[in-house]
Structure formats: structure tokens, C-alpha cells
Structures
1.
Amino acid sequence: MDRRAFLGTLAGGLLAGPLAAEAQPAGKVYRIGLIPGGPLAVRMHQWDAFRQTLRDLGYVEGRNILLEFRPPGREGDRFDDLAANLVHLRVDVIVASGSSAIRAAKQLTSTIPIVMCPAANPVEEGLVASLARPGGNVTGLSVVAMDLSGKRLETLREMVPRLSRVAVLRHSRASAWLPSVEASGRVMRIQLLDLPVIQAGELEKGFEAAVQWRADAMMVMASPLFFGLRTRIADLAVKHRLPAVYDLPSFAHAGGLVVYGPSDTEYYRRAAHYVDRILKGAKPADLPVEQPTKIELIINMKAARALGLTIPQSLLQRADQVIE
């Protein structure tokens, strides 16, 4: 079963993109500003999906479209400086990944369309008025409906039957999902240990704290910082004998035990469709914010063996992908 298909949250969501022959008239070159949520090198496969979708829609770089990447060079780079550069260039559309980058762009312009790719909770964060009618100049993708905390804890419990203590590893700036994780923990009677990490150098201490607390497993919450460190995080989980669940497929391919979440490239493909619609005249205020309605379950058997886990056959049968 293919669980990667994205659907609009509401009737009247984005339509599939037109054929290449219907792309913008020859002679017009559009400039698209791109603000990745982290260093570009670790996210190229996502932006490659964005580029490929634009090509499928009839946009050719250097002929009728120019892509202006403004990635942060390191942790702590100011997104407002990157956004200011794009506003100064008068780009036609800004595509920003992550709430911090989106917020920086929104604060600097109320006229240039901004496509979220994605935001955690755009309504609560004041980025859009509502999912159905965003208003203003911001629209795009959101993960707000993907409250998968309970499902991730259930997946861990299937792998670790006596699960009672779970450490929650998160970037200190990423707290949007924490209330839902805590609520799921209460319902399932699982104790949680919040482990906020400010920078990469604190990861080892975070894992050591989890072990000292006698955690049975770990939940790793998404952040640009963790995405760039996914291989290291997966290795630390094995080193400290902590079964861990993640939310993006890239973590499983980097050695993580199990992923339960939306495709980390499909957001970028859908973002390209938003760009296409906007360049053809659609207003961001009128384009509903999309959310993923299908998710992927990916199990890394190499990690399972390293952790000494026996994965239930019922869980393997439900998996979209099993990495040997």
C-alpha cells in the first residue's frame, strides 16, 4: 500500500499541476527565493524533489525560472538576514522551510507570496489566519494535523512490550509538539523525560541522561538541527541501547530503528505545485494550507539486530518499507 500520497485538508485544495506545455509564456523568467531550514548539503534530496516537480510542470532553470538559495551556513545563522536578501532581490515567491524561516520572511514582506514547506502549527504561530483561508501572503504545507505522538508510542510499545519510560529528545527551539506527546504519555501511562538540546555538542549528554533515568526507549522530535545529525543520533541510540522512533524516512535510512511519519520529500513536491499556482495568478490568501493524510512506517532491521530486538511479524507486515 502506498501511504505517501498527499491530499488537501479540505475540499477545494490544490489541483494537480498542469502539463508542461501549459507553463508560463516564453520570455518571462521568474525568480524563486528558497530558505532551507538547515544547511543545504543535508537536504539536497528534498530540494531535488522540488526541482524535479518544477521541471515536470514546465519550468526550466535558466530559461523561465531562477532559484535563489539562501541556506543558513551553520546553526545560529539569522533567518531574517537571509530573508532580507531575498526581499531586496524582489523575488516572485519565497519558499521557506521551518517556522523560524517562514516567520522571518513574513515579518519582512507582506506582498511577496511565501510558501511554507512545511510549518509545524501555522495557525497557532500566527503565520496564517486559518488552514482553509490563510489570508495575507502565506500559504503552503503544515504538519499540524499529524499528531502522531500516540501512534509513535504505540509502535515503540509493540517493539518494547514492557515500555514504561520514554525519553523525548528535542531541539530546545522545537516545542510545538511537546504538549501532544505529554498528553499521549498520560493516556498510555508512560512516563516521559523531556531532553531539550541546544546544540550538537549536547547530544551525548542527552543520551546519557536518558540512560541514567533508565529510559526504555526514545522519541526523537523533528528539527533542522537533528535532521543534519540524523546518522549521529541513530548511532548514539544503538550505542546506548535505546530503541528510538523518528518522524522522517531519512532517519531510518541513516540507521534509525523505526519511522512513523509523512514522507520528507513529498512536502517539497507539493510546494512546487503551490509555486506553480501562484506564478499563474493564484493568491496565497485563497490557497488552503495542505496537510499530509498518509504516513509511512519504515523499520530498519539492521538497527533492530544491533539493539537485540525481535520485531513482531504483525508490525513488519504493516510496514511500508523494511530496510535490511
Note: Residues 1-24 have pLDDT under 50 and may be disordered.
2.
Amino acid sequence: MNIIKKIINWIDEYFSEKEKEQINKLKENIKELNETINYVEMEKQGLLEQLEKETELNELEIYWNEKRPHHENYQRLVRTIPKIDSYVKVDPRVFLNPKDNSVPFLTEDSSDNTNDQRAYKCLQWVHKNIKYTDEMTQFKEKEEWLFPFETMSLRKGDCEDGAILLANMMLKAGIPYWRIRLNAGDVKGGGHAYVTYLREKDNKWIILDWCYWYSSNGRLWKNAKKYFGIWFSWNTKYIFYDEKFDRSEV
């Protein structure tokens, strides 16, 4: 007789039916407890990984927000007062509003479930649907930065108009604000405005330019030789301004 049969016979001989039921119930409780422990351990591991990722992202956000000097009071002459024909100074951050209902929201599907894919999709949409028009022609030699609802109404605009719309679309798609910057600066041929994006897959800055030197998936900043110094840049929280700007970094 093998050991299993001996145990069974021993249980049959020394335990009553009621005690056997209690033993079986205890076994079931132990099994459920083990399953619960395993589940809690998995949840714990998942939370630790999430905390580690969020900590890393928070450090990245702080790093890029603090890398360049801030200019809290910077204002730009970008709008004229109707009928008075006089420029007013505007804080460029007013052009960023992810809750603007006029900003297109590109419905997510299985092919655009990462921030990078959403960013490229927004860039491609602006390039396809907004016609580039030099504002010197459009507004008779007056500089007029447009809000997204104005660009959407006209379906055309200068470089900064499409860039502002693009940045707002990216924000509305759920891309973190600190990964998105609007920039004004020098390019080959003159002044220009465009979006730079801190790519998620490798945390490298790329240029998302809808009109000047378009590439459907952007260009690495370090390889974009037609782009020179940045006069100033901004996201929803900060304006970055550095007279000693180094073109090698954003």
C-alpha cells in the first residue's frame, strides 16, 4: 500500500465525516488565501512599476522645465486693436488652451495609442487641412497671431497659426504639456514659428513643422540644420528666453 492510500485510510479511520468536511473547507480557504496573496503581490508590483515610471516622468518634466531660464513677464506684439490700428502686447501662453472646443480632437484607434503616434497624426492633419498663407499678404503687412478658432474658421494661416493649432491639438489628444513647445526663432530664410516635441520613445526633441520643412514624423532637432537659434519658446506654464541660446540643445 502506497503512502497516499495510507493517509486516506488514516483519515477515514481517525476523523469523522464532519471533521473531514472541516478539513476540506480549510484546504479551500488556504487555496483562496494563496490566490489572494498572489493577486496582491501582482498589484503591488504593478503599483511599484507605475510609481517608478511616474517618478521618472516627474523628474523629466522638472528637468526640461528648469533647463532654460524663464521669462515670466515676456509679452509679444502679436495683435492689433481693430479700428485703432495699434499693436497690443500678448502673453504667448494665452494661445494654448486644450479645452478650446474649436480644436479638432482626433479619435484614438488601435494605430495611435501612444503619445508619439498621436503627435504625428496631429501634425499630418494640420499639414493636410490648413493652407499656408504668408500673413504679410493675408493681413496687409501686419503681424497677426491667430487663435485656433480663427485658423479653423479661415482654414489657412501663417507658420505660427498652424503651429499654435498643432500644439493645441496635441494637448487635447492627451500629450503632456511639458513634451510640447512652441518656438519662435531663425531658420534658413528668415523668422519662423514651429512646434518641438520631446519624443516619448527615446526622450529626444524633434521638430514638428507643418509648413516650412515638413516631415510626417518630424525631424530630430540635432539633425535639422535649417533651424538656427530660438528667440523664445513656451508651453502652457512657462516662457523660455535665453540670450545665450545654444543651438545644440532645445
Note: The mean pLDDT is 83.
3.
Amino acid sequence: MENFTVDGNFTRKMNKTFISAFQIGVVLLAFNMFLSITASLSNALILVALHRETFLHPPTKRLFRCLAVTDLCVGVISQPLFAVFLLLSVTTGINFKFIFCIHKLFNASSFVLCPVSVFTSSAISVDRLQALLSGLRYRYVVTLSRVRTVIICFWLIGISCGSIFVWSANIAFTVAFALTTFSVTASVFSYAKIFRKLRQHQLQVHAVPRGQNNGRVTLNTVRYKKSVSSAIWVQLAQVTCYTPFLVVITLMTYGRTFAGRMEIAFVITATLTYLNSSLNPILYCWRMGAVRQAAKDTIKQLNCCKSA
């Protein structure tokens, strides 16, 4: 979802590199087109499944829906523009101004969507921590209206980053990098505190005689652990897909490394970031049984409508 910062001279050099590496460009072009389709269809299905699913707490569901919306926008907007940019870059005789315009568009859209996605993943981790700390007060602390306000703030930050990119690409990358670092740090802190609290709770449960153990509390704990595990998988997938790109673009932005291999590494790692939008729906269906069942029911209903 996140993309790179370049000036006109670098884009010209990168265009020459793509033409000389035609086969790599064609493979990446085809792969990005495929990912664009899968991200669009799968996240649309997840949004329908989340709408039908009643197991999740509504504010938590709203956060997952926000994440699915950003991934859907990647599949519908950012990745198709990136694929067009790759197509134009490996095609000779294309006006450079048109290529640079497409470059601006897919970068700006990526800088809007990236902060929203990263902040939402971090908000899910904070939500899971708040559920553990608040206990019975959780439903009164984390309300739908408050989560809606937070999500609006996320989108305003994303739009601001996209606007900054139009003005200064380097400043936009610096801001996006700082926001990503802050969000990941907040997530690590939240999950570390969750594990510490769960460890303390487990020791307290073991200290209570079996006859006095409350089965309902144990069941709620198991369900909570599953929700935390699902959120961690989503966060790990995001970090895994984004980290290689952040390393490459940091070297290219601040190290001024413009070698051909580095430019190819940029395109590969940028594609990896887009892959995250197609992986998330798989993780939802794998780790969240209610979402998986709702998705199956939706597919069955669509098949029935086609057969009818």
C-alpha cells in the first residue's frame, strides 16, 4: 500500500531499467494485475461477511471493516495504477509526462491508504488490550461512536500524507515512515502487555482449586486469546510485507542508491506490499471462524442466485 519517493531524473533512470529488464517487468505486471483482482474480490467478500457476522463486538468489527476497505481501495485504485505504470515503463514510445502523471497518482493514493491501514492495525491491538484491561467496562469504554471518530481521524491523516506527497515526496515519505514506526511500536507495546497480563491471569487461575474455578471465565479467556491471535497474524503479515520495501526505499531516498538492481528490488518489494491486501482476507477466514462461515454462506447464496 505504501510507495516510493522519487524525482523526475530518478523516474527516467528507472524507466530505462525497466525497458532493459523487460521480462521481469512483464512478470511483475501480470502478477500485480492478478493481485489487483484477488484483492478487490476477496475484500469485497470480507466486507459482506463482516456485515453479516454478529460474533464480533461492533466497534472491533468496524476496525476490521476499515482495514478491509483500505485493502479494497488498494485492489481497485492503487494497484491498477501501479500496474499501468509498469506497463508504460516497459513499453517504448510512451510520453514521459504521462508516465510521471501515473507515477504521481498511484503514489498519492498509496500515501493516503498506507497510514490508514497501519493505524487501523495498531488500533486493533490497542482495542484488544483495552478489552483485557477494562473487563466489564469495555463495552462502555470502546463505543461505536468513538471508534468511528478514530477512523475518521485516520483517514484525515492519510489524506494529509497524500497531499504532502504532491508537494514534497521526501517529506511525505519521512512522515509516513515516522507514523509507521510509531504504530508498530504501539502494537508491540500492546501485545507485550497483553501477554504479560494473560500470564499473570494464568498463574492466578492455577492457584485456585479446581472446584472453585469458574468455567465461564476460562471460556471467555480462550475466546479472547483467539481474537488476539487473529490480530497478531494480521499485524505480522503487514510488517512482513512492508519491511523489505521500507528498507529499500530508505536506501534509495537517503542513501541515494540508484543502481539498476536496487530499482528492480524496489519494484519487487513494492509488489510485496500490495500482496498484503490479498493476504488479509485469507487470514480473516483462517483465524476467524465466524467470518469464514459468513463468507461461505455469501458464496453459496451467490451460486444459488446464478443457478436460478
Note: The two ends are 39 Å apart (CA to CA).
4.
Amino acid sequence: MDVWQRRGAQPGARPSTEPAVPAHAAATTRAAASVEVAAMPLAALADTVSACQRCELHRGRQNTVFGTGDEHARCMIIGEAPGAEEDASGEPFVGRAGKLLNAMLRAIGMSRESVYIANIIKCRPPKNRDPKAEEMVACAPYLRRQIALVQPRVIVAVGRVAAQHLARSTAPIGKMRGQRHYYDNSDGDDGTHIPMVVTYHPAYLLRSPLEKRKAWDDLRRLRALLEAQQ
């Protein structure tokens, strides 16, 4: 009797009992999930993120790190990804970097409780490496929905990865700082066009304290933008 074997299969291997999923079907499933996310309130979105398995990062996480702060804040601060302390606590920007961020906000008369803080991706990358493009794409619907629900007047992109992703730029952060940027959700239907300030990540400022003067200039720019919209 002839034995038919799938091309590329190893001799003696047991045939898979799982049906293959065509690439176009997987893409359709992801698109449908994104549409569902676009209709969620914030609490339901947080629950969905907590069970997310859109990328491989879910395998190594302790907690997802969704967001925290005023859900109707005028200012939204967006970093790149959780670190070890954020992964352990489930809250963005904790530890030394979080304390510095709190101090930076106080310097312009704001508080952590008065802003909304989130990250580009919701799970910690291994060894705190930069997020991969496919990981940012997987998390993008969550962040878009967060921004749509909070409706901030100004976004602060903290660090190179967040700044480049939100501004859709490849420029180094040193050249992005001080320039006019906007968060433009051209993938959606809400016409979102939000002024954006680019600044250094607090973790970088802890390693390079001489750059704090430049970050202070960025904070003053943020304050001016908020005051102009009162």
C-alpha cells in the first residue's frame, strides 16, 4: 500500500491532527479582533489585555501592564515597554524611573494622578530589549483604543522607541526633540490629531543626568501646549 506523506515531513513523524490555518484566515481573525477592541470601554479593554496572546511575549510575563491614572486626563504619557519592576507590579513607570517621572511632573505643577500613563506594548520583552516590530503591531489596537477613550489634549512620547513609533519616524530622538509632532490615527475613523512632545526616557536620564536640562525644556513645552488649550 502506498504511504502518502506531507512534503517536508520527517520520516516516521506522526501526522498532525490540527488543521492548518491559512495566512489569510489568520489575518482576517486579527482584523476582526481589532474591530472588537475598537468598541470596548476601558475596563473591558484592560481585561482583554490581561488575557492577550497576540504575540510571544505573553509566555514570559508575570503581569500585563495596561495603564494607570486619570482616565480623562488632558495629558497622556506613553513609554515603550514594561521593565522588570513594572512586570512584577502590573503598573507602568515604577521604581527609580517612575520616581523621576513623578518629580518631572511635579516640576511643572502636575502629578502622576493627573495624567494617564501607558506603554506601546503591554508585556515585558526578555532582558528589557527593545520591542520588535511585530510586537508593537500586535499591541497597536490596544493603545489606539486607550488614546481614543482618554482623549488627551497632548501626548508625551517618552524615549526613542515610543517617539519613533507614535510619530512614524526613523529619526534619532535627539533630532525629534523640540520639533512639532502629532499623533495621527490615520488607521481609524475618528480623525485623531493630537500634539505630541518628544522627550528622553527617565531611565536614560538616570544614566545621563546632564541631559536633564534638555528634558526640562521638553517639559516647559508640554506645559505651554496645555496652557494654550485652556
Note: Strands lie at 67-69, 75-79, 116-119, 154-158, 181-184, 193-199.
